[in-house]
Amino acid sequence: MSRVGKKPVTVPSGVTATVEGQTVKMKGPKGQLQFVVHDDVDVKFEDGSVKVAPRHETNRAQALYGTARAQIANLVEGVTKGFEKKLEITGVGYRAALQGKKLQLALGYSHDVLYDIPEGITITVPKPTEINVAGIDPQKVGQVAAEIRDYRPPEPYKGKGVRYSDEFIFRKEGKKK
Q: Alpha-carbon distance 135 to 143, whole Å?
């Protein structure tokens, strides 16, 4: 069993952490985030670090306190460095462009797909075939990247579509004559 939950989350300088009941709030140079810890987990802020421990000796509490510790560590990383996902577009005529608060995607459909950029997320398009999704909330960044990828997931024969930059697409051989 993992012992990730036993390690305290150190709060770096420049970040203020407050624990009010079951709510952990982090404020740093990139912004402010908060996380509500489950009732089965005890959370304390002492000596410049946040410590979590299971309240009961149940399997559920054991499972949740490691998760709570990872979420709090993500809060610290989010308000200091932020999170980023890179997407690549492959295919003839497939491209992306920014139009104010919308992302315009040409993905082989009869129309261009317009994606509204949510609050707290910044999208940049360094090249027409690259999209960078950045923000302080890892869940939101991952969700936005997944929604953009869902417009045209990569297909296994030619590899056309939107994929994560570190994603491996298993290529299939076409039919033979």
A: 11
Q: In what order do the strands lie in the sheet with 49-54?
A: 9-10, 49-54, 41-46
Say how many C-beta atoms besides its own lie within 10 A of residue 79's C-beta.
Answer: 25
Determine the Cα–Cα distance for residues 38 and 93; give it in Å rounded to an integer: 48
Profile the chain (177 residues) by mean pLDDT over runs of 10 residues.
78 87 89 89 87 87 88 91 94 92 93 93 94 93 95 93 92 88
Tell me the pTM.
Answer: 0.86
The C-alpha atoms of residue 90 and residue 27 are separated, in whole angstroms, by 38
Place of tokens 């390690």: 7
H-type alpha helices, 81-115: none
User: Are 68 and 37 within 8 A, CB to CB?
Assistant: yes
